[in-house]
Amino acid sequence: MIEKPRLLFLFTGGTISMAKTGASGHLAVTDAVPDLLSHAPVLASVAEIETQTVTNVDSSDLTPEDWASMAETIAGSQEDYDGFVIVHGTDTMAFTACALSFMLGGDHKPVVLTGSQRPLMAPRTDARSNLVHSAISATMNVREVGLYFGNHLFRGNRSTKTSVHAYDAYASPNHPPLVELGVDIERVSPALQRTGPLTVRTEIDPRVAVLSAFPGMTPSAIDALTDAGTKMIMLRGFGEGNLPMKAWPDAIRRAADAGIHVLVGSQCRAGSSRPGRYAGSDAARDAGAIYIGDMTGEAAVVKSMCLLGRGLNGEAFRTALLSPIAGEITPGSASRL
Ligand code: ASP
Predict the structure, then answer these.
(1) Is the Cβ–Cβ distance between 236 and 297 less than 8 Å?
(2) In which band, very low, low, confident or very high, does the pLDDT at 30 lie, cut at 50, 70 and 90?
(3) Number of C-alpha atoms within 13 angstroms, CB side, residue 257?
(4) Largest Cα–Cα distance of the chain, in whole Å?
(5) With contact defined as beta carbons under 8 Å apart, do 62 and 92 qualify?
(6) Among 19, 74, 193, 316, which residue has the least CB neighbours within 10 Å?
(7) How far apart are CA 244 and CA 293, in angstroms?
């Protein structure tokens, strides 16, 4: 008899395990996480499943300590399971996927994050299908941190939540999906080839900030964040990472001279943030800004927290930021050279 794969489901909360509560009718996490196999009995045909609760919160309340505890549990259970499914709120799932992909180094068993737009108990829930497809994905030996949503297994650190209400709430605008799970299951793009023994690094420096530019905005917030001891400021520019020419380059220079890493991303989801086409991006680069290429905003923020936590600064920070740790950036996408 062929043995079924063994999977560990780690619960963290989110809509999937919520119910409408109290007079307010808010969706809130329930005391007990739902019994998976009674709601999705078909899971038993996919794998032998065990569950563990990491925490039970709306994903807006997850912290880097929770990321670390997930990473450590996964690392510590490598010998016991063939893969891991993290049941997670959809709002910050991309951030957790990034964190796990940076914290877990070397070769490891597949990790798949999923959640749902409607609770597992709801009649029209998307949870059952997401759980089953995530379980199947976790048995496919895709040895990286993936995120399953809307019939696709995405590279987790390339994913971003794109819809509040659609059942296919996630996309990976700058990288093809790893697997498409339609009528047939097809591998679309190759998984990472990770080698070497598994390592876990959970150090985080949370002193990072994000500013989204808009026409008419002054860059005074850059100075305020500089004075507040921020270590990394990511500016969400327009298009390819354009920023206003007036006053912004000077503020970027002041921050860079104070040792702060000023990153420039884009308010657009698809494509690269890079200088070279417009004067506004060249001026920011010349003032010391680091363009993030085709990384998602989530990846750039979480990666910065990890690199700063590991004590990287100056040129070492810049080089590491622009080099892939787990496939989160296409080399060369941050410049036009
Ligand atoms: N607020 C919820 C969460 O992220 C949303 C969801 O799970 O869909 O925890």
Answers:
(1) yes
(2) confident
(3) 9
(4) 71
(5) yes
(6) 193
(7) 19
Other C-beta atoms closer than 10 Å to the C-beta of 55 total 17
Atom of ligand 1 nearest to the CA of 169: 8
Confidence tier at 1 by pLDDT (50, 70, 90): low
State the span(s) of the chain assigned CATH 3.40.50.40: 208-321
Question: How high is the pLDDT of residue 227?
Answer: 94
Measured CA to CA, the distance from residue 156 to residue 169 in angstroms comes to 14
**Mean predicted lDDT score pLDDT of the chain:** 96
Q: What residues contact 117, with CB distance under 8 A and at least 6 apart?
A: 15, 90, 126, 165, 166, 167, 169
**Domain range 6-200, CATH architecture:** 3-Layer(aba) Sandwich (3.40)
Neighbours of 149 (CB within 10 A): 30
DSSP letters spanning 275-289: SSSSHHHHHHHHTT-
Candidate list 15, 90, 92, 125, residue with the active-site label: 15
The CATH code belonging to domain 208-321 is: 3.40.50.40
Chain centre to alpha carbon of residue 139: 21
Distance from the alpha carbon of residue 15 to the mean position of ligand 1, in angstroms: 5
pLDDT in tens, 275-303: 999 999 999 999 999 999 999 999 999 99
Q: How far is CA 189 from CA 38, 139, 194, 275, 296, in A?
A: 34, 17, 15, 28, 18
Query: Is 15 an annotated catalytic residue?
Result: yes
The pLDDT tens digits for 178-199 are 999 999 999 999 999 989 999 9
- DSSP code for 47: -
- Residue span(s) of the chain under CATH 3.40.50.1170 come to 6-200
User: CA 62 to CA 83: how far, in whole Å?
Assistant: 22
Q: pLDDT band for 28, please (50, 70, 90 cuts).
A: confident
Regarding beta strands 170-171 and 160-161, do their DSSP bridges make them parallel or antiparallel, or are they unpaired? antiparallel
